[in-house]
Amino acid sequence: MKGAIIHPTAYVEEGAQIGDGTEVGPFCIVRKGAVIGSNCKFTAYCEIRSGVVIGDYTTFGSRCTISANAKIGSHASIKYGFVLTDTPDLAQGNQKVVGSIGDRVLIGANVTLMPGVSIDDDATIGACSQVRHDVGKGEVWFGNPAKLHSPKS
Predict the structure, then answer these.
(1) What letter would DSSP give residue 45?
(2) Which among 115, 126, 140, 150 counts the fewest CB atoms within 10 Å?
(3) Distance in angstroms (rounded) separating the CA atoms of residues 119 and 131
(4) From CA 24, how far away is CA 21, in angstroms rounded?
(5) Measured between alpha carbons, how far is 91 from 119 in angstroms, rounded to an integer?
């Protein structure tokens, strides 16, 4: 974790991995087993739960919550108030169902990603959206519930 900056009020549990050059801001929590890539940035009050994997150069605004075992790609930009939710799958013995986010994704402020939903590479999600369905590569979605508005050109 060469060159990483961990704010004194941040809490990083033993067993979490933080990449070189990553910045963890005030009052952020990084749980054990989380793997964060290089040159990422977490503004403030973010919670990265156990088993989360985040690629390089991904940024988060304040007050983001990423549920356990989620996967987030590289070069993603996630604005403040984002929540990636999970839910127990009763058929799988209460194993959590969680979504994923691809590379180069842009997510606006105050977005909720529902359990098991995936956002593919190069997609854009507008602010204040609740994403209930998988989002394809390069697609633009927004609204509550979020709907496809146009594929990126």
Answers:
(1) S
(2) 150
(3) 9
(4) 10
(5) 24
User: What residue segments make up the domains of the chain, in order of their start?
Assistant: 5-151
Phi and psi based region of residue 9 (left: phi greater than 0; alpha: psi -120 to 50; beta: remaining): alpha
The answer to whether residues 4 and 19 touch, using CB atoms and an 8 Å cutoff, is yes
The contacts of residue 13 (CB under 8 Å, 6+ apart) are: 29, 30, 31, 32
Dihedral angle, C-alpha 86, 31, 19, 3, nearest 10 °: 140
The two beta strands, 83-84 and 53-54, are unpaired
How does pLDDT run across 29-86, given as a tens digit for each residue? 999 999 999 999 999 999 999 999 999 999 999 999 999 899 999 999 999 999 998 8
Q: Which positions ≥6 away from 132 have C-beta within 8 Å?
A: 114, 117, 145, 146
